[in-house]
Specification:
167 residues, alpha+beta, 5-stranded mixed beta sheet
């Protein structure tokens, strides 16, 4: 009974955080223009916040892990909001299926996705998130496509922030 009660409290806390972030996106002009690129949902792991590239509005230049100013602003705002809960977070960088000329043996989408996830971690912290909240930073390359029907779709390039549930 105690485990079930704690799980319900945790779910409610994450649901409230989701609503707070959705309100923040609507109420800050610098975020509301990017609301189509910000997806929030509750998964088995916790609250997942995905920041997705659009064709004409990427978070990073191609083959780069340097965040564009609008992406930094999004991460700064989210970083502040994440301090509202005690849950730890996991960051995952994703790429599309475009390949590097050097192939998988050299610098590849694996390194790029991990570098992008780590760049995002730094910006969350610059924005005010407590650095001890980070549990893991992962690069997934193009192994988990957002658009499975089009591996080259810009939406496959994204950062996933999961506010982990207590379990």
């Amino acid at each position: 009974d105690e485990k079930e009660r704690l799980a319900k409290e945790d779910h409610l806390r994450l649901q409230n955080l989701k609503e707070d972030i959705e309100d923040m996106i609507e109420n800050f002009p610098e975020l509301s223009e990017f609301k189509n690129q910000l997806l929030l949902d509750i998964t088995a792991e916790g609250l997942r916040i995905q920041i997705i590239d659009e064709q004409n509005r990427p978070m990073f230049d191609l083959s780069s892990d340097v965040l564009k100013p609008h992406a930094k602003e999004i991460l700064h705002r989210i970083g502040q909001a994440l301090n509202g809960v005690s849950n730890r977070i996991s960051l995952t960088g994703h790429t599309d299926a475009s390949r590097y000329a050097g192939g998988e043996a050299g610098f590849s989408n694996w390194e790029l996705s991990a570098n992008r996830a780590n760049s995002s971690r730094r910006e969350l912290i610059i924005g005010g998130m407590d650095e001890t909240k980070v549990l893991r930073v992962v690069g997934a390359a193009s192994t988990i496509l957002f658009d499975k029907n089009d591996p080259l779709n810009p939406s496959n390039r994204r950062i996933s922030i999961v506010v982990l549930n207590q379990r």
